[in-house]
Amino acid sequence: MKRITVAVLLLISFFSCKKETPNTPGPATDIPEWTLFNTHNSPLPDDQINALAIDKQDVKWIGTSKGLIRWQGDEWKIFNSSNSPLPSDYVQSLAAEDNSTLWVGTTEGLVRLTGNDWQVYTTANSPLTHKGILCIVHDAQRKITYIGTEGSIIKIGADNHWDIVLENDNPVLSLAVDRDGSLWAGQFNFFAFIGRIGKYENGQWSSFNLATAGYPSSFPYSLAIDKNNKPVVALSGTSVRTVVHVNGNTLEEIPYSSTAGGVKVLFAEGDKIWLAGDRLSMLGSRDHSSFSIPDTDSPIQAIAIDSKGNKWLGTLYNGVVRYHGKE
């Protein structure tokens, strides 16, 4: 099977590649509103940031196309396939557990990293059906981790018991778990060119066909759970660019800033949900402000928030950005 990951990356990539001299970090006591960290001013091995995760100790984990980075304070540690058991330098997804265990999805398999203990899972030594790991979500309350691959979803329990809960050869672009423990998944069928949002509850699947619901050729790129325990989905495609929430058997559009630009990533923070793509904004009103990153036009591919409320943004071609500003 040809790697569907490549097709996904091609479809979501942008064709302009502009780099400029970034802002340099200021003193710890005087944090600027925007700070760029890239290959020009930091140990980052690559400026393409595919995934971000921040654990309970505020350790930043960064997934790039040239390895995994652990960043704590002033210490940066870079892991790649040459100096660690990482099965591929291309890191596509990350999820941190409360106990500091980190799940790492690559183009060649899955890693569970706890301290210095690396457990590597591939199609050869585990129930993984596909080697490309596109997204990961951890249900901390139930101690379950869900793995989204290029064509399946796998459930891993606290006892390391694996179950394949879905296998249909459609790439899993997004995952989220609601407060009731139901799993929500966004998939895209490249042959029919149709997106789908699925719900896995009590061992059974139900789903929305996005084309039938009025959103043809839509990629469900990101999922988040709002304060009312409703799934929120970022949809983008040939003729669609919107955000919806699932309300029973219907999809309802959510207003967002009229200047937000692209729709790619969602992140829930308390009562707020952040939206990122070309710019950063909050959902809820077309009058909300949206913020562009200074000194770069790079789209945003990932969001994480630390314990101090700083927003960390992973960009397509200009590294990591810390936003320490007004909302």
Any overview of this molecule?
With 327 residues, the chain is mainly β. The chain has one domain (36-323): Methylamine Dehydrogenase, Chain H (7 Propeller), CATH 2.130.10. Helices cover 3% and strands 47% of the residues. It has one helix spanning 4-12, and strands at residues 34-37, 49-54, 60-64, 67-72, 75-79, 91-96, 102-106, 109-114, 117-121, 133-139, 144-149, 152-156, 162-167, 172-177, 183-189, 194-201, 204-209, 218-225, 231-237, 241-247, 250-253, 265-269, 272-276, 280-282, 290-291, 300-305, 311-315, 320-323. It has a four-stranded antiparallel sheet with strand order 1-28-27-26, with no helix packed on it. The protein has a four-stranded antiparallel sheet with strand order 2-3-4-5, with no helix packed on it. Strands 6-7-8-9 form a four-stranded antiparallel sheet, with no helix packed on it. It is globular and about 50 Å long.
